[in-house]
Amino acid sequence: MFSRTYLQQVVGISNQIDPQIVEQAVDILTEIRAQGGRLFFIGVGGSAANASHAVNDFRKICGMECYTPTDNVSELSARVNDEGWESSFSEWLRVSRLTKNDGVFILSVGGGSPEKGVSLNIVATLRFAKEIGAKILGIVGRDGGYTAKMADACVVVPTMDPALVTFHSESFQSVILHLIVAHPKMKKFATKWEAVENENLY
User: Fold this and answer.
1) On the CB side of 105, how many CA atoms lie within 13 Å of its CA?
2) Is residue 134 part of a domain?
3) Does a structural domain hold residue 8?
4) Structural domain of residue 66, as residue ranges?
5) CA 129 from chain center: how many Å?
């Protein structure tokens, strides 16, 4: 049964992810926040949707200044049209005045590959962030790609089924991001339903 197999794979992925890498990412993020840095999420397709969700949660729950270029369709489409897709994110970060106090968080199925010419916009973003000295984090699938090579902390979602890499990778972006937001070191403000439930206990 496909449903049972899929859910078993989800359990398998959860068991294989290294929690120490997640803790390392949390420590980097708390340091960025403490020094007044900003966090920029970068993602394409389903990962862009996860990036937008992450911006909401990190701002509202963690009290951290966050942005993603894909939330501004007007600017992004203008950059793609006028300057090209490859530089669209890195130039957005340049105009955002990325500094060494900031962080860039990559969400990607493959992590980008200059050798294969895949997700070159992410590759350009990583190179620019490294040049500036910003912290780089990632949640990626497959072998982690260029993101895993460049990142200060990168969670690589294990491949349980080559035919389901995209589905598992994007699902676990959400799982890990929620883990980070809920982490006691990161969470600053209560979420509504949990607060309501706690009030009803007393």
Assistant:
1) 29
2) yes
3) no
4) 16-186
5) 14
